[in-house]
Amino acid sequence: MGGWQAEQYRDEVTGARVRVLTPGPARDQVVYQTHPMWTRGMRRLLFHSDRTGSQWPHALDMATGVIRPLVDREAGPVVLARKEDRLYFRSGDTLFATDVLTAFQDPAAARRVADIPSGIERIEGGFSLDAGEDLLYTGAVVESDRKWALLALDLGSGVWRTVVDLDFRVGHVQANPYVPGVILFCHETGGESPQRMWVVNADGSGLRPFYKETYNEWVTHEVWWGPDRAIFTIFPYDEEHRRLPHGVVHADLATGTPTIHSQFTAWHAHGGPDGR
Predict the structure, then answer these.
(1) Which DSSP letter does residue 204 get?
(2) Which residues contact 22 (CB under 8 A, 6 or more apart)?
(3) 2 C-beta neighbours (distance < 10 Å), count
(4) Which residues, other chains included, contact 168 with Cβ-Cβ below 8 Å and sequence gap of 6+?
(5) Are the C-beta atoms of 53 and 66 separated by less than 8 Å?
(6) Eight-state DSSP code of residue 107
(7) Are 109 and 97 in contact (CB under 8 A)?
């Protein structure tokens, strides 16, 4: 980390060494576990902070410890590319892109990519980039409480299209980070849904449950774990469900077959990059 030494302490319970990357009184928030928050080589860490007065995306330079905002306007949702140090964000009715290195010096350097499409009430469910990083996906409310959709934006042409129309609210949109054209998303309710996890191809084909729920499970916080499975939690919300399979689980993309890793009251789980 160059000449910068982050503040450290030893966790009393685990004995782990903890480095405080964003000290100070600001309200700092990590990017959700479904999306990347490091630029290439872990040179900079993306996070949200109210250091500028509102919750805007900021970056921490890991070599120097310097923290700066990456935008000069209200921004949300955001998504960081994996192949290039590029941040996409919405401000108002427009989608912008900015180079993280450039934005670190000049937060006004963002360029317009496209306007939010007409004919919808609003976008929601977050942004996600296809593995090829030529498409951006998001959910949309077409008609309040009646119609929803999953949308795709061609980042080269700026043209939007509908991937699939839906009869439920879209949340946690996540393109497969390894395989182009495969999108994981959820039936968002703000709580337990009758069938949480869904997957569809970018051409609109193959819409199906990723993991088909049984015994009124509370499935939540799904995230890709490699190219062919997703990890999630089954939350045991009452005594009956504590006696049933629950905890940290992954499901196979091809068959939906679940594997339980831990009978634990888990929340916001993720898997290591080594697949173990």
Answers:
(1) S
(2) 28, 47, 49, 60, 67
(3) 9
(4) 148, 187, 188, 193
(5) no
(6) T
(7) no
- Say if residue 3's pLDDT is above 90: no
Q: What is the pLDDT of residues 14-42, one digit of tens each?
A: 999 999 999 999 999 999 989 999 999 99
Token pair in block for residue 91:
């401000």
- Whether the per-residue pLDDT at 76 is higher than 90: the answer is no
The yes-or-no verdict on residue 2 having pLDDT over 60 is no
d(CA 181, CA 30): 27
Number of residues written out for the chain:
276
Q: Residue 240 has which token pair?
A: 């009956």
Q: How far apart are CA 104 and CA 46, in angstroms?
A: 11
Q: How much is the pLDDT for 275? A: 84
* Neighbour count for residue 38 (Cβ, 10 Å): 15
Position 1 scores a pLDDT of 46
pTM over 0.85: yes
DSSP state of 178: S
Angle among Cα 180, 141, 202 to the nearest 5 degrees reads: 15
